[in-house]
Amino acid sequence: MPDLSSLPITKRPFKLQARRLGISEGVLLSSLKAYKKNGLIRRFGAILDHQKCGLKANALVVWKVKQKKLDSAGKLMAKIPEVSHCYSRRSYTFWPYNLYTMLHASTSADIWRVVREIAGKIKPDAYKVLFTLKEFKKTRSILR
Amino acid sequence: MSLKERRLLEELQSNFPITFRPYLEIARRFGLSEAEVITKTRAFKKRGVIRYIGAVFNLKRLGFSSTLIAARVPRSELKRAVKVINGYPQVSHNYLRNDKFNLWFTVVAFSKLELLNIIREIKKRIKLKNKNVLDLRTLKVFKIDARFKLFTHNQKAI
Lengths: 144, 158
Prior knowledge:
Chain A is an alpha+beta fold. Helices cover 33% and strands 30% of the residues of chain A. The longest helix of chain A has 15 residues, at 108-122.
C-alpha cells in the first residue's frame, strides 16, 4: 500500500518517506514520476481546502439525460471549470438521475448560474441541485 | 489572499516538482528563497488552506472498489446514523444534502466483496429499508479534478 501521509514541509521532503519505505530518495522520486506518468497517481501536489480558498458553496447536481445524449453531456460538463467531478452512475426507476456533477463556487447564486448554463446546453429531462448542508466526514481520501 | 499567495498556491497544487528539493525549484520560478517558500507553505498548511501534500492515487487502478450511497434517514435518527457510518474507516466522505435522500456518503474498500459487506452491515445497523437506499455505482468517469481555480479571468497568473 502506498504511503499516504502528507509530505513534511522541509528542504528534503521525500527523504523521510524514502527512509520509512526503506528505499533511497532517488528510487522514491523515480517511482513517483513513473506512477504519475502511467496514471496510477492522478496528480501530485497540494490538496487545498476549497472552503478556505473562498469556494463556500458546494453542490452535487444530479441530471437525468437520455442515454444517447449521455456521453456528449458528460464531456460538455467535464469542460466546465466549476465542475470538479463528473460521473455517470447507476439509476433506478424511483431515482432516474444518471449523470452526477460536483460543483464549487463562491456563492449559491454562482452555482445556480452554472447549473442554468449547463441545463441550457444539454437540455436534460430533469435535474436537482443538492447543496452540501453539512460535512459529517471528509477524510483526505485515498479515493480521489 | 494576495495575488502572490494565490500564484504560489496554484504552483503547489498544479506544478509541484517531484525532485530532491521541490521548494528550491518553486523558489527559483518565483524569484524567492527556498526558506521563504517553505515558510509560506507551512503557513498555508497551518491555516488549513492546504489540507495535504502528496499523491492522489487512482484507486480503481490499484484494485479498490468504491461507491456513492444516498440514504433516506429520518431527522430523529440522523445523529446515530452518522455515528455508525462515520465509524467505518472505509467511509471517506459523508454529507448532509437538501433532499429526501438526505445522507450521501462514499465507501472505498479493498474489494467488491468488502464493499458489499460494509453496505449490508450499515443498512442493517441503521435499519434502512432497501427503498431508502441508493447504491449509485459509477458507470463512467468523465472528470475527476479537485484542483481549484484560484484566479478569475482578469487576474490570470503569468
